Amino acid sequence: xxxxxxxxxxxxxxxxxxxxxxxxxxxxxxWGLQSTHPLPPNIVVKLLKDNGFNKVKLFEAxxxxxxxxxxxxxxxxxxxxxxxxASLASSVRNAEAWVQQNVSxxxxxxxxxxxxxxxxxxxxxxxxxxxxxxxxxPALQNIQAGLIKAGLGKQVKVTIPLNADVYQTDSGLPSxxxxxxxxxDLVINIIKFLRDNGGPVTVNIYPFxxxxxxxxxxxxxxxxNNSASPLVDGSVVYTNVYDANFDTxxxxxxxxxxxxxxxxxxEVGWPTDGDPNANVDNARRFNQALLKRIIQGQRSPKGxxxxxxxxxxxxxxxxxxxxxxxxxxxxxxxxxxxxxxYPLDMGNxxxxxPAKGVKYLARQxxxxxxxxxxxxxxxxxxxxxxxxxxxxxxxxxGSSCGNLDARRNASYAFNMYYQxxxxxxxxxxxxxxxxxxxxxxxxxxxxxEIMIDTGKHELAPANKSSAAxxxxxxxxxxxxxxxxxxxxx
Length: 489
What we know:
The chain is of the alpha/beta class and 489 residues long.
């Protein structure tokens, strides 16, 4: 998804809105898999269908997800991670093998309706420092060759999910839009290739990140129905940054001879935790208005609408990198277990519905013992250890659990570790300062979780990367320091 970017007020006119779908018959969303306790794929597919989603984007070719999507009536965009681009660019045989294993196989054996292959994810981000500039286009060409060889060239289209920072406007107005000078020629060659092979331009747009990155950004301009001062661009008026962003891309395409190029919004949404602006009220306000525009087929001020709008995201992911910010783990319109975060009208008065058939671990929590002292010199280290392997982002400033007192702070960290470790008996043992309770310690809006029963009992999450561990350690140390200042130690 879109990573943290240090953007000035200049990007007020850059980060924004797509034009939205042409009176769609269904909805589209992203299904991320970076969770310590993922929902079973069959439950997720039922959740998608129950809520009117008929298109889904995966960030990787996950076998369980692709099998569960087979014969479901849901169209699939399957992603290829950035770390695979070099291998696919180096050899067309590698690309052919990937297509055979991850596209042809699921179409023929399971009836999975794969319509797009999304190559990479925002590979030209400024923060990547040209890491994928030389490999993205060759990889795209090789994957297309693989699809053609497999007889899928007409059925499955290629695309590259781009971040909105691939285009800019020197005038500060959408009409001045053009592609970034350092990658201009490359982007034009890619768009021409996509056009020639029937693929769309895909872009991720995040009004939340515009607001989060710049303290001077006018908050109201990040939302649709707002009281912000409009931006006037000639005869066109922009009332929100979403529209302005999308039409900046439209102008860039028109300027370079691709005025009729189809556009897909690969990611757009609003998180509910991990940042002062990430909360249930803001997320509901943004996503409800977004859904309304999708369903009504509202266009941008320049009269364009994308083919599809993929909401980011379906479910929270507690194992995502927090490098862009703690909010990264809280983009879902559903909690990690498919439960409802906030009411939404999914179209025609149809209310959002939760996942069904979810099985949980025992109804018990690990908390700080009543007899434990907050001045215990071992307590801060215990909290750091807990947050190294568990998601403590809700404890951060401005978050749902950010106002807990010192004792509940420690309890939250202990419980997240205990649940992440599948309630192992030895996982509620923090220097004799913790106990197991059957009384729910939740203090709204702070929710003390009980994890999904996946039947797994690892000492530490197997899919936690070393980079994610480092990030978690830094987060844990910061939390411990905060607790020290609060008088825990």
